[in-house]
Amino acid sequence: MKKIVSLVLFALILTGCDDGDLKVDTINFDKAAVESCTNGIIYKLNENESILLDIPESAIIDEPSDSGKPALYQIDNSAFRVIYRAYNGTVSKNTICDIIPPAAPTVTEQWTATGGIMEILTTAIKTVNATDNSSRITGYNHNISFKNITFLKPTGPQVYAEFPFGDYKTTFEPLPFTFNEKAEQCSVSKQVYNWKNNASIVLDGIDPTLLTNEATPPGSPRTGIIGSSSNKLVYTVYNDFLSDEYFCQTPASSTPTVRETWNGVKGVAGVSGTIEVKTESFGPDTFKHTITLKNATLQKGNNTFRLGDNFVVGELILAK
Questions:
Q1: Which among 47, 143, 172, 189 is least surrounded, fewest beta carbons within 10 Å?
Q2: b vs e for 264-280, b when ≥16 Cβ sit within 10 Å of the residue's Cβ?
Q3: Which residues of the chain have pLDDT under 50?
Q4: Are 273 and 297 in contact (CB under 8 A)?
Q5: Within 10 Å of residue 110's Cβ, how many Cβ atoms?
Q6: Cα 28 from chain centroid (whole Å)
Q7: What is each CA distance from 284 to 208, 210, 281, 288, in whole angstroms?
């Protein structure tokens, strides 16, 4: 639907073009901010000028670019459209985004890109908590630039070998990290898990010696390292709320469906990814194991963020 609306918008504005008197030889939007319409059009404004990008939603991927290499797209004046316009007055967001554009200003000159490469380099925007050294992803920055872009002007073609467009930012729904105080363990698989609402955190293949039912000396917890098979850390966000019945099933439940999964980065002894367990007596023949992750990092594809210096998975109560 967004694509249909954007195509209608472009068609309507095109009908307002005339030959006018303003002739432009170069275009420069270095100081203009990148903005977008609800119909998906990305644009920059510079007093009486605009540059418009009409591209598929799928081209803007909220995932850091692979190995820092930008995604490349061919400008074809079809799926990937780049248009420059000059107006006979000050241009505003309404001029660009309204389905029926205002009567003024009108377009006095238009350049349409007929070829070239669009590059989009995406990086994650993170906030860092200086108190616990945790980081959280709050959005993504998409740096857009053009290589060898050819504009068809009224007077003929013009080529820019390098043409930086700018940074287009998208927001990211914060991941939920508030869990129940009490953790649980499956009786057969021995997975340790905690959950709340639509998110879970699981330690799979946990070293059983970490959960020995014997009090640990003060200041001397048992320790292990996050691994890729044993002591595997998995954080999952679902498309609906969980219940305790979701866990420990064989085969695994198919509902609710998984929205995204993050895996713990393998730890380095004494440096990162440490599993720390403090055990206390909790009544006759019962023990409380407080499980804490120290300097742990979660990863999904090219994305990573830190859980922080100390992240409590939960308190696991086990009988002797």
A1: 47
A2: bbbbeeeebbbbbbbbe
A3: 1-22
A4: yes
A5: 21
A6: 30
A7: 21, 20, 8, 12
